Structure formats: structure tokens, C-alpha cells
Amino acid sequence: MAAAEALVAATREQSGCLDYAWMPDRVTPGRVYVFERWEDEESLQGHFDGHFYHDMRKILGGYGRIATDIWKYRPDRVQRVYDAKGVPRADFFTE
């Protein structure tokens, strides 16, 4: 995590980056979650094409990955979890 700290901070400054964070799993030693949120596909592609992404791969490669499970999501519906009464809802309750 310390080796990536400057990289994470710099990536957050990239055009179109809304969120970028690395988080260690406190239950499973060695597991790291990476959360990214980009404004659009062009911004994400710019990240993939830039040196921050390639630098990240070099950092991770130095630690001998055991497994990787990488997904990207494109939310077509976004809504807060809690309704107006403060009740958590799993359904999409507004139109």
C-alpha cells in the first residue's frame, strides 16, 4: 500500500477520475481492493493509455499476484440506498 500511495494520489488528479482508491482487506491478509470510478469511457481509456496505469502494473507485479478478479461496471440506473424516510431499499423506488 505504501508503494502505491503517490501513484494513487496522482491518478486521482487525472482528467475524468471521480474516485480511485486501494483498500486492504482487514480479514484476508494480502488482499487489496481497487475501486475506480471514471466520468466516461474516454477518461478510463486515457488512464489505461497513460503512465499511471503502467506504473501501477509494475508495482503490483513486484508483489507476485496470486489471483486477480477484475470487472468493470456501467450503471444504467443509479439511486441512493436510503429512501426519504431513511429506510434502506434494495429496489429502485423512484423513476
Summarize this structure briefly:
The protein has three helices and two strands.
Task: Describe this protein's structure.
The structure is a single chain. The protein has 95 residues and is α+β, with helices and mostly antiparallel strands. The chain has a domain at 2-61: Alpha-Beta Plaits (2-Layer Sandwich). It has three helices and two strands, in the order αββαα. It has helices at residues 5-11, 41-49, 51-61; strands at residues 17-24, 32-38. The mean pLDDT is 90.
* Average pLDDT: 90
Q: Could you tell me the strand content as a percent range?
A: 15-25%
For the secondary structure, the number of strands is 2
CATH fold description of the domain at 2-61: Alpha-Beta Plaits
In CATH, the architecture of the domain at 2-61 is 2-Layer Sandwich
- Taking Cα atoms only, what radius of gyration do you get, to the nearest Å? 16 Å
**Which spans of ≥5 residues are poorly predicted at pLDDT below 50?**
none
Helical percentage? 25-40%
Defining traits:
single chain, 95 residues, alpha+beta, Alpha-Beta Plaits, two-stranded antiparallel ribbon, 3 helices, 28% helix
SSE map:
Elements lengths: L4 H7 L5 E8 L7 E7 L2 H9 L1 H11 L34
Antiparallel strand pairs: 1-2
